[in-house]
Design a protein that fits this description.
Length: about 240
């Protein structure tokens, strides 16, 4: 479904992604981990067209989408959340999701777009707060809203960037259940960036590890978490999460 070949992204003298190869099959849940600054968000930005890689290619369903603009990538079926959530604070939850429905699915404003936004809020458990201005939401609620916004473009592939970060253990458990629920309901394929490794152990069948922009390991969570190079990468960094 998604394939990266030798993906390289540089910022001046810094190589944020260095010849990264990866592949995600339809229906899989794949984790993407690595210490702070290892290139995880940059990979999301390259996949979704926010950055064009200097080298390499990104293929989605066999189509070359390297360097395609973000709105084109979204309409092709790739949704994403942002590590730092940036909802429209003064708009309601419903309005925030409806914007995605309007621009992502090309509907015009009306009962159909509102109903679709409402369905998505129900799916993430925020249905009853549809008229609440988002500035009043807790972080956990904003993370749920971020998922609903990502789903508003009707993606087949969903990229989640640290949706568990900052949540307490109870909220993490609920968020994991939510992700399984969404996957079942919508039949999504998922790529999940996460520092809460326990959450990945319970959700992913395969984990990819980046360190200084290079892929250093890939495989089932238990195997990868015990890989000496992965342990060294994590212990060698000033991991604060
Ligand atoms: N727009 C940018 N301009 C310059 N450097 C950047 C830019 N975006 C990212 N970088 C650098 O690229 C490297 C990878 O950053 P990235 O945000 O992808 O890491 P990450 O793995 O998502 O880290 P974290 O776990 O802290 O979110 C870092 O050294 C970062 O400072
Ligand atoms: Mg990041």
């Amino acid at each position: 479904m998604l394939r990266g070949q030798q993906v390289t992204k540089r910022f001046g003298g810094l190589t944020a992604l260095n010849r990264v190869d990866f592949a995600i099959e339809p229906g899989q849940i794949v984790g993407l981990i690595g210490p702070n600054g290892s290139g995880k968000t940059t990979l999301f930005n390259v996949i979704t067209g926010f950055y064009r890689p200097e080298e390499g290619r990104i293929l989605f369903d066999g189509h070359d989408i390297t360097g395609a603009r973000p709105h084109i990538v979204a309409r092709m079926g790739i949704g994403r959340t942002f590590q730092i959530v940036q909802p429209f604070q003064n708009m309601t939850a419903l309005e925030n999701v409806e914007i995605g429905v309007l621009y992502g699915q090309g509907l015009s404003h009306g009962s159909e777009s509102q109903a679709r936004a409402q369905e998505l809020l129900d799916l993430v458990g925020l249905g009853h707060q549809r008229h609440t201005p988002v500035r009043n939401f807790t972080l956990a609620e904003k993370k749920r809203l971020e998922i609903a916004r990502a789903l508003s473009v009707r993606p087949r592939l969903l990229l989640l960037d640290e949706v568990f970060a900052g949540l307490n253990p109870g909220e993490v458990k609920q968020a994991i259940e939510l992700i399984f629920h969404i996957r079942r309901e919508l039949g999504l394929t998922l790529l999940i960036v996460e520092h809460v490794l326990g959450a990945l152990r319970d959700t992913c069948e395969r984990v990819i590890v980046l360190n200084y922009g290079q892929k250093i390991a890939e495989g089932p969570p238990e195997e990868v978490f015990n890989h000496p190079e992965v342990i060294a990468a994590y212990l060698g960094s000033n991991e604060t999460h």
